[in-house]
Amino acid sequence: SHSINLAVIPGDGIGQEVVAQGLKVLAAALPQDVKLETKEYDFGAKRYHATGETLTDADVEALKQHDAILLGAIGDPSVPSGVLERGFLLKLRFLFDHHVNLRPSKLLPGVSTPLKGQPEIDFIVVREGTEGPYTGNGGSIRTGTPHEVATEVSVNTAFGVERVVRDAFARAQARPRKKLTLVHKNNVLAYAGHLWTNIFNKVAEEFPEVTTDYLHVDAATIFLVTQPERFDVIVTDNLFGDIITDLAAAVSGGIGVAASGNINPSGEFPSMFEPVHGSAPDIAGQGKADPTATVLSVALLLRHLGHETQAGRIEQAVAADLTERGDSVRTTDEIGDALAVRVAS
Amino acid sequence: SHSINLAVIPGDGIGQEVVAQGLKVLAAALPQDVKLETKEYDFGAKRYHATGETLTDADVEALKQHDAILLGAIGDPSVPSGVLERGFLLKLRFLFDHHVNLRPSKLLPGVSTPLKGQPEIDFIVVREGTEGPYTGNGGSIRTGTPHEVATEVSVNTAFGVERVVRDAFARAQARPRKKLTLVHKNNVLAYAGHLWTNIFNKVAEEFPEVTTDYLHVDAATIFLVTQPERFDVIVTDNLFGDIITDLAAAVSGGIGVAASGNINPSGEFPSMFEPVHGSAPDIAGQGKADPTATVLSVALLLRHLGHETQAGRIEQAVAADLTERGDSVRTTDEIGDALAVRVAS
Ligand SMILES: CC(C)[C@H](C(=O)O)[C@@H](O)C(=O)O
Ligand SMILES: CC(C)[C@H](C(=O)O)[C@@H](O)C(=O)O
Questions:
Q1: Which structural domain range is residue A140 located in?
Q2: Keyword Ribonucleoprotein on this protein (chains A, B) (predicted)?
Q3: A158 and B146 in contact by Cβ < 8 A?
Q4: Are residues B155 and B190 part of one domain?
Q5: Same domain, B37 and B137
Q6: Do A137 and A183 belong to one domain?
Q7: Helix, strand, coil tally for chain A in percent (to 5)
Q8: Torsion on CA atoms B191, B194, B200, B204, rounded to nearest 10
């Protein structure tokens, strides 16, 4: 396509600052003949306080008109925990059927990690995005009394598991090492675990070149810090994916550089790209936020829209910047400028 | 009490080897006037293959007669994943109401960690042991078809949450730093999350000296590798506790030294002590297993039975051994002997 019609949601806290840099680099990366149209939306804490709304039906209809969504971060201490997360972020992931939650982890040479010995880290996590314990199914009886019972229901369907497992196999197949690890807890969560394991094994037959592997989620966290080089592609459920991708980010350069895509592979609804980090209200407005995660999310966005060359250029610019930044302290804006210059040149 | 009537369950794989060392050190630690009686039980893969049994009603009655249980490890690749875990280990935790699953993490000077800079790690995790996603509630319809739906129900009660939260506050109160962190995912798992958070805040009022803190489980994994020194006591749900204690073990000396207690604080049923590691069939029978985790579990066992001095002596022996072992390669037996000698002297 020769135009990109982008929805931009800066959101809360540092979201504003990092999204500005993402857009700067996006503009620098796009070929002359691709027209970029952006429309900004004001979702987040401010709008919630003013109107009580997180995401209306009209908002959803408006967002549907876009080719993709760039999100900064949503969340603020002034709003009760969960209100914006469930009322906006998860609502969009579910409504737009973002079932492939893609989170790459790559430790670049020279980039700081809490791990000793600068291990080789280069894997992607394909996290299921529309099922599992995230469905909001559950409830509470006798709430607030000494006899309260609260439940959370993890819902897993063959349809939902198979499509994300298939996506992960295809991604593994396309990578040099061709290795896919299923992460679950099938020794305890037996019903969901059997479903995931059976489907994983069934789809594996269609990908004979892909080496497969299974790890319980608890063991996976051990390997993420002791042998992260063992991972190539990981496929996992929504909650396990949430947990291990934060850990993966921590060991591979920190959440300042962790990108993610909430992808609807069919293109029926727009996909949404966002840094893994939150709105970090403690450093908001001070120019301290690292926009790299947002810039890398823009690369995922471009790749999703078919602009592979431009996505690669952004990733190379980030790699060069990370490798060379050393201990330099730069503002959000300076990092964005430096990346835009590299991408344009 | 002037006698200890101990149930010993070596179990599978390296369980046999490590339990032998645990008993050796236990014998060396006990004061002359405490009589130790042990009875060995053959639970695990071998018995399962021979009889199809994992834990019968008669077994449960027999185990109830003991003051405590020492467990090596249960699990073998020859048994389908989950059969022994659910049919034996989780069954016992639930039947004996082991609601306080206690898992200390302490990185001793000189002990290897995958983290840079030898951080100060000294915290305990109080993991709920009888509720959450571990209850086995759930099911599957249209199993094995493209229309399968599999569910897992996390069950959380005010009764179950309050008692473990109270236990954790008491433990935090007794420690120098007096800090307690609740780990959950209350922005997504709203029903269970509110129950945990409300009870945590309510019980906190009774412990004004304890500093409290809340972290989402994903953020907690980040801090476990970037700032583990921030933790003193953590209280969390069964599944989150499973995940973060493996990670905690990995950063604080490895699962070779991670101990745990499945505790019934009322003493109505015997508590069970076990290393966090599994049966490690790949190294079983070769004298390669580190018995330290089992020996430290014996210390937890002694403390639980009121033998604080002896528990402390074992922990000091382990600390001295770990600090001095350097790169020496010793057999399971040699480590056990060295610890027994230190404890006796
Ligand atoms: C904010 C929260 C709802 C979200 C999640 O749990 O998915 C976040 O942690 C993430 O990983 O994108
Ligand atoms: C073996 C398994 C059922 C068990 C658990 O999940 O609790 C283990 O991982 C543990 O942490 O003790």
A1: 113-252
A2: no
A3: yes
A4: yes
A5: no
A6: yes
A7: 45, 20, 35
A8: -160
- Please report the pLDDT score of residue B1 as a whole number: 54
CATH number at residue A64: 3.40.718.10
- Say how far apart CA B201 and CA B235 lie, in whole Å: 13
- The SS3 of residue B52 is coil
Q: For residues A226 and B250, what is the distance between their CA atoms, to the nearest angstrom?
A: 7
What is the rounded CA–CA span in Å between residue B198 and residue B191? 11
Q: How far apart are CA B274 and CA B304, in angstroms?
A: 13
Q: Rounded to whole angstroms, how far apart are CA atoms A235 and A213?
A: 10
Q: Does A188 sit in the ligand 2 pocket, CB within 6 Å?
A: yes
Do residue B82 and residue B175 come from a single domain?
no
- The predicted-structure confidence for A181-206, as pLDDT tens digits, reads as follows 999 999 999 999 999 999 999 999 99
* A272 and A238 within one domain: no
Are B191 and B307 part of one and the same domain? Answer: no
Mutation target vs A (from B91, B121, B130, B225; most A CBs, 10 A cutoff): B225
Put simply, the answer to whether B191 touches A151 (Cβ < 8 Å) is yes
pLDDT in tens, chain A (345 residues): 589 999 999 999 999 999 999 999 999 999 989 999 999 999 999 999 999 999 999 999 999 999 999 999 999 999 999 999 999 999 999 999 999 999 999 999 889 999 999 999 999 999 999 999 999 999 999 999 999 999 999 999 999 999 999 999 999 999 999 999 999 999 999 999 999 999 999 999 999 999 999 999 999 999 999 999 999 999 999 999 999 999 999 999 999 999 999 999 999 999 999 999 999 999 999 999 999 999 999 999 999 999 999 999 999 999 999 999 888 899 999 999 999 999 998
On whether both B117 and B236 belong to a single domain, the answer is yes
User: How many domains are there within chain B?
Assistant: 2
Domain boundary among A226, A252, A278: A252
Distance CA(B289)–CA(B237), nearest Å, equals 30
Order the strands of the A138-141 sheet from edge to edge: A138-141, A149-157, B149-157, B138-141
Which of B212, B231, B252 is where one domain is finished? B252
Considering every ligand atom, which ligand is closest to the CA of A258? 1
Q: Do A153 and B150 touch (CB under 8 A)?
A: no
B285: phi then psi, degrees, rounded to nearest 5: 80, 5
Extract the annotated binding site of B for NAD(+): 278-290
Which residues are CB-neighbours of A51 under 8 A, at least 6 positions away? none
Model confidence over B222-236: pLDDT tens digits?
Answer: 999 999 999 999 999
Atom of ligand 1 nearest to the CA of B188: 3
Residues of chain A contacting B156 with CB distance shorter than 8 Å: 149-152
